[in-house]
Amino acid sequence: MPFNITDSTVLHNGVKMPWLGLGVYKAKEGEEVENAVKTALKVGYRSIDTAAFYDNEVGVGKAIRESGVQREEIFITTKVWNNRQGYESTLQAFEESRKKLGVEYVDLYLIHWPVKGKYKETWKALEKLYKDGYVKAIGVSNFQIHHLEDVMADAEIIPMVNQVEFHPRLTQKELLHFCKTHNIQLEAWRPLMQGQIFNEPTIVELANKYSKKPSQIVLRWDLQHGVVTIPKSVHEDRIKENADIFDFELDTEDMLAIDELNENQRLGADPDNFDF
């Protein structure tokens, strides 16, 4: 059970991935994303999650270089966007992302969405990048069980990570079980439902019980389910608050109470029905 901000899960290839990371979706390129990344690294975060689609890889890379934290101490994730999927185009997209970030290697490279007819070729490109040493780990994002099974049917390397929408209203129990069974690390995006979960009576009650903020209760619930979490914020106080989750533990019955909030409610797109 993680009790320190520097605690990591170990992916199936032996690579360590921090349990907590900073998400930078919609953080504006330039000062906004740079300040968010620098603040997070100063607080003790050692994982930053970006994507080509976020259009802020340059700022993320700049902030990391200027942070004073050694590159090898930081776990950098980026992703290939849908319109670049396919074998050769993915290799090109990766090189563009790597240059924007200004790094020699990326810690984790993900397929952003399971684009029909493309993601298996894209996966082959990720396997090549991994074998060539440009990435320390490879994975997918927004993949359902059937997508994972499809990739794994003829993959040389099983995905190390699956980053999906995961929060108390979308607990994805079957997917979580499948990933644990196959040694695929589940990772939560939009874990705090953009704040929509903060007024939920169960969460408020638990926040009072543990003398914590609603956000901290939800993020701790992620960790205790063995799910890596990457809350997004550009505000210093929130970035600090989201990291203050390593000094308490939710009781089993409280974990179950949060589980019971599930409504299979998605805020983002359905991985089986998206058109972007």
Explained architecture:
This is Diketogulonate reductase-like aldo/keto reductase. Belongs to the aldo/keto reductase family. One of its GO terms (molecular function) is oxidoreductase activity, acting on the CH-OH group of donors, NAD or NADP as acceptor. It comes from Tepidibacillus fermentans. The protein has 276 residues and is an alpha/beta fold. The chain has a single domain, classed as NADP-dependent oxidoreductase domain (TIM Barrel, Alpha-Beta Barrel). It has ten helices and ten strands. The strands form two sheets. An eight-stranded parallel β-sheet has the order 3-4-5-6-7-8-9-10. A two-stranded antiparallel sheet has the order 1-2. Helix 1 links the parallel strand 3 and strand 4. Helix 3 packs across helix 4 and helix 7 packs across helix 8. The mean pLDDT is 97.
What's the topology here?
Elements: E1 8-10, E2 16-18, E3 22-23, H1 31-43, E4 47-49, H2 57-66, E5 75-80, H3 87-101, E6 106-111, H4 119-131, E7 135-141, H5 145-153, E8 161-165, H6 173-181, E9 185-189, H7 201-210, H8 214-224, E10 228-229, H9 236-243, H10 252-259
Parallel strand pairs: 3-4, 4-5, 5-6, 6-7, 7-8, 8-9, 9-10
Antiparallel strand pairs: 1-2
Helix pairs in contact: 1-2, 1-9, 2-3, 3-4, 7-8
Nutshell version of this structure?
With 276 residues, the chain is of the alpha/beta class.
Q: Helix and strand succession? A: EEEHEHEHEHEHEHEHHEHH
What percent of residues are in strands?
15-25%
Global outline: globular
How widely separated are the two ends? 37 Å
CATH class: Alpha Beta
Give the beta-strand count. 10
Helical amount: 25-40%
Whole-number average pLDDT?
97
Which second-level CATH architecture applies?
Alpha-Beta Barrel
Determine the CATH superfamily: NADP-dependent oxidoreductase domain
What does the radius of gyration come to? 18 Å
Number of helices, where a helix is a run of at least 4 consecutive DSSP H or I residues: 10
Which stretches of 5+ consecutive residues score pLDDT under 50?
A: none
Largest sheet: 8 strands, parallel
The largest sheet has its strands arranged as 3-4-5-6-7-8-9-10
User: How many domains in all?
Assistant: 1
- Oligomer type: single chain
